[in-house]
């Protein structure tokens, strides 16, 4: 398995940001990314119920899923 900053992919690793006030960096497994990208193509604005279901299925906090979708929307806007 590949590693990032000395940790296995899919695990939380500390982001070297000095004060540590931003918490932990989430590294997604390729399978998790695939599921999120597929759902984003169908619905770029999932509701809380959908995000909660994804959180349970992918074992990722719902708040991280929400931020992932927000970031994807911004990336899409920037590219167009």
From TrEMBL:
Keywords (alphabetical) are: DNA-binding, Homeobox, Nucleus
DNA-binding region, as residue ranges, is located at 21-80
Pfam families attached to this UniProt entry: Homeodomain
Q: Which domain of life is it from?
A: Eukaryota
Ranges where the Homeobox domain occurs: 19-79
Location, primary (coarse class): nucleus
Q: Where in the cell is it found?
A: Nucleus
Q: Which GO terms describe its cellular component?
A: nucleus
Q: Which InterPro entries match?
A: HD, Homeobox_regulator, Homeodomain-like_sf
Task: Please list the GO terms describing molecular function.
Answer: DNA-binding transcription factor activity, RNA polymerase II-specific; RNA polymerase II transcription regulatory region sequence-specific DNA binding
Task: Fetch the PROSITE patterns from UniProt.
Answer: HOMEOBOX_2
Q: Which SMART domains match?
A: HOX
Kindly provide the name given to this protein in its UniProt entry: Double homeobox protein 4-like protein 4-like
Q: Which organism is it from?
A: Odobenus rosmarus divergens (Pacific walrus)
């Amino acid at each position: 398995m590949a590693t990032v900053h000395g940790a296995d992919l899919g695990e939380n690793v500390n982001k070297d940001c000095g004060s540590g006030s931003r918490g932990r960096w989430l590294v997604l497994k390729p399978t998790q990314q695939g599921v999120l990208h597929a759902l984003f193509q169908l619905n770029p604005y999932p509701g809380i119920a959908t995000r909660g279901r994804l959180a349970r299925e992918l074992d990722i906090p719902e708040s991280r899923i929400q931020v992932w979708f927000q970031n994807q929307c911004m990336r899409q806007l920037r590219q167009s």
